[in-house]
Amino acid sequence: MHPSRLLLVALAAAALLPAAEPAPATPARNISYNAVATGPRTPEEERLSFTLPPGFYAELVVAESAGLGKFINVTWDARMALWTMTALEYPVDGNEQKAASDALFAAGGRDKVVVFDNPYAAPAPLAPGASAAPAVTIPPRIFADGLVMPLGVQPYRDGAIVQYGADLRHYRDTNNDGRADRHDVILTGFGTQDSHLFPHQFLRQPGGQIFVAQGLFNYSSVRRPDDRPFADGSTAIPFNQCKLARFTPDGSSFETLTAGPNNIWGLVTSREGETFFQEANDMGYPVIPYEPGVWVATGSKDRLRPYQPLMPPPLAPAQMGGTGLSGLALAEDRDSPFAQFSSAPSVPSTAPKIFYLANPITNTINAARATPTADGARYTYEKLPDFLTTSDKWFRPVAIHFGPDG
Description:
Helix content is 4%, strand content 30%. By secondary structure, it is mainly beta.
């Protein structure tokens, strides 16, 4: 077995899935393939159900514990601590239950920002006669609680930037005890209409700005909390339906970047600064090269500019088989078996990029390959054989990333 770590996947039995949306009223729609007939398995039983390519294996890093549960996304800070958040309050749909949604955000909820400080602890040595080392138990540290479905978290300075309702907040640990003791609102005015489409996919970029995405059914008028003008002189910026934007951590700048695609739940920037993102609903865009100003097919008619050209789908027709793609990871270490999955090794300048995609609807981890064109300006895309399959219908991968160790 190769010593490289398997992609870390955050799992939840009933996480932020598009199945929560009203299903189209059509007799042709059949989701019986995803019916759950039995109860959930233990983490070890689920792990043993995985089928992976030769030379790969899965190992448990952390598991949900009583009163914690429902991890939604993961990220790392500069100390390699693993950050995640929960969504026990999901779903409360402000479109259908506005009064209940407003009351919940005003009162606070059961959700938390959780930190695992040592996710790379070495396993204990094998005891004499033992066939496997005991599992490493990593205690969680509750950084912030009383939250309601925080969809975005980005470690920053003495804490983390966290989405809460209409706000983007900087939760801070000013006394260095490992817990947030205050928060500052950076930006506000985000819509809370649809609880699985709040601001999400925070991703810090070279230069210090942070990407943020919003989904199809939410409408926002973004402003600074004290109504001071932004760097461009405006006091409120429309951020409606499916968009990708970027902001500065102090809230002085907020800029919309794309029109579409639907529900960006996968977003990754390479070490070279090239960004790829993902359309969730299997419309032929499971991997999309990002450029500022791009228009990608979406259920929204809103565009940034009337003359925007539509990007053609890189993998048409739809090939992934599930309308809830929820994560995108890029294998960057060229000598890693992850970068060579279904691909012969090649020199870095011509090497294809291998992407891994979390697919909670089909209970799989998909793979796709982007091969540079002869002029090096573009890629051609193809779906590869699924990387991980399982018979367990409770396996719902909702986030997928490479860790700092590759």
